[in-house]
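This is your field. Please look over both lines of this record.
***
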Amino acid sequence: MSVLKSTAVVGAFTLLSRITGFVRDAFMLALLGASPLLDAFIIAFKFPNFFRRISAEGAFSAAFIPLYAGISATQSQQTAQDFARQAFTIMGLLLLGFVCAFELFTPALMKVFAPGFKDTPERLEMAISFTRITFPYILLISLSSLMGGVLNTLGKFAAWSAAPLLLNILMIASLLLLSPFVSNQGTALSWGVLSAGIAQFLLLWLVLARVQSPLYPIRPRITRGIKTLFSKMLPGIIGAGVFQINVFVDIWIGSFLAVGSLTYLHAADRLNQLPLSVIGIAISTAFLPTLSKLFQTQQHEKAQAQFTQALSYALILTLPAACALFILAHPIAKVLFERGAFTSADTLATAHTLQAFVVGLPAYVLAKVLSTGFFARQNTITPVRIGCMCVGVNFTLNIFFMFQTSLGYVGIALATALSSWVNVLFLSIRLNKDHIHVFTRPIGLVVGKIIGACATMLLVLQLALAPLKPLVFHHQGIWPWALLFALVALGLLSYFVCAHLIKLLDLKTIYQRARGRRK
């Protein structure tokens, strides 16, 4: 399966999961509003997701997939399967112990990571209660990630990409159906998260059992492959942890701000995450196994070509997404979230926060792709060093925006965006030193054409938004949705038509490549 076709598969399922995620968030915001209860649940949801992104999407995947792909390419599939089962067993035991320890010390950890909650004891108690329910999710989703890594290496991308759908569906079902039977809606959402972890684990296990021998616990042994895996994981854990510390810097500072600030950051970040997931995670997920095999077999020229292609696709799709989200931030937030307990003032706060986040949207996606250039060569140390510096930049900017300006929660989003660009700059410089070229003439030509196409799209959207904006904001029912859909479609059409005319994209060629055919 080609990188483009793999990216399309991952992107399509990710897009579907993000759409259901918006439905989930719309229910949450409408029923709970920018309230202490929702702030508490957001914290409880952040904790397992923080560690998931370290163990599941970060260090483990970055270390496991290249090793598994290398063993499959240079040895036998049975050897690779034995290695995966050992990793499954040892990782499961370590995470089980970690979950038990975290459950025991949750109250103390909450006071460290969200110290501002001490001023609202009810919010603090709810956050502790919700976190104790949600945290075992990390064990289930991390083992699911391992199985997803095996499937991705085999060229089976659909199951792991579709798994997040279960999280959204079960959270919505819990909010609507379980709430009457538990103490509050936050508790219902928390049980929805845990049940989704169980469902995702079962889905991946059954799919893997269908296409290959399933993974199951065996007698743990510290083999050479396991030693290599954990030696590669350790700096990756630090590196992924460094990146995710930015998330907790935001939470730590946000806990001192007014009630509702964490809700605005969460809602805006959800919108910002749509293109990040559909483009960045999709490209890096599909790209890592291919690039790893090319480096393992010393095909450096082909690896460079694949790397340049991935960067081009990321830029072609991300820059217009950032521009469109910036100009349409207010109508998007209004149509998606403004109902029930979520007011027009909440909508405006979310829109301003989203605009700050999307300043860094291209950087978030590029960092995903650039990091793959290190992970594919089993270099997990360099991103750690760069990430440590970026945490310092993010923290400094957060403090500056919090105390030296009146930006508040918007400043938190802007600090995250700016520190991400610093991350991209230094990752690019280091890759060039390693003879994996980022600043190439083809990339420069692509960026120039993208800027031209984006300028055309922004002009078209601005002209269309002026007469339509009052209709979006002063009507109810289906009309705001229809008008927003029309604006998005108009933006897409103007961008891709312009991109085709200036020969940035050849839609026929893309279609042929997606089907795995030569032109």
In short: The chain has 19 helices and no strands. The chain has two domains: 3-439, 440-519. Residues 440-519 form one domain. The two ends are 16 Å apart (CA to CA).
